[in-house]
Amino acid sequence: MLFSTKAEYGVRLMVELGRRTGADPENSPPVSLTAVAEAEALPLSYLEHLVAKLRMAGLVTSVRGAHGGYRIARPPEEITMIEVVQALEGPIAPMECFHPDSEGRVLCSHEADSHRACATKLLWTRVQGGVTRALAGTTLAELVEFAEAGPSVPLAAQPA
To answer: What are 18-56's pLDDT values in tens digits?
Structure first.
């Protein structure tokens, strides 16, 4: 499963805001998107589009004015990556025919074409569950800590 650059850049944006905002977002100075774009080598215009979605989802707040910018809306340990990815990408679905409903059940558009269960629904349900668990089990605080530890930290040493 591939996520788009929206998810990649949005997570990188959140990590940079998390690094600069700290554990107490309300008392931290806002960070300009220009500073984030420079630090992460990302296009400013794209970050403006992403931060609008993150703001609508309640994950970041904005401060207007000459010294304005953005900061995370909650402490980093309270923000999960599933919130970030879903705010940017929408529902997690490994296949186009795969649609979770409001009750958490998985619907497959192929099942409407026949009177049998979709032959691959079990597989894609497991894939969706694994991805969802990984995103829900990863906090912004973990990613900030990992980013600050530097590239020498082996991934195996990190909690799963």
So the answer is: 999 877 888 889 999 999 999 999 999 999 999 999 999
Q: Are 60 and 54 in contact (CB under 8 A)?
A: yes
Candidates 72, 42, 76, 48; CA nearest to 59 is: 72
Q: What is the 3-state secondary structure (H, E, C) of the chain?
A: CCCCHHHHHHHHHHHHHHHHHCCCHHHCCCECHHHHHHHHCCCHHHHHHHHHHHHHCCCEEEECCCCCEEEECCCHHHCEHHHHHHHHHCCCCCCCCEEECCCCCEEECCHHHCCCCCCCHHHHHHHHHHHHHHHHCCEHHHHHHHHHHCCCCCHHHCCC
Full-prediction pTM beyond 0.85?
A: no
How far is 94 from 57, CA to CA, in rounded Å?
22
Q: Which two tokens stand for residue 26?
A: 């309300």
- Distance between CA atoms of residues 141 and 15, nearest Å: 8
Asked if 11 contacts 139 with a C-beta cutoff of 8 angstroms, the reply is no
Q: Are strands 98-100 and 106-108 parallel, antiparallel or unpaired?
A: antiparallel
Q: Which domains does the chain have, with CATH numbers?
A: 5-154 (1.10.10.10)
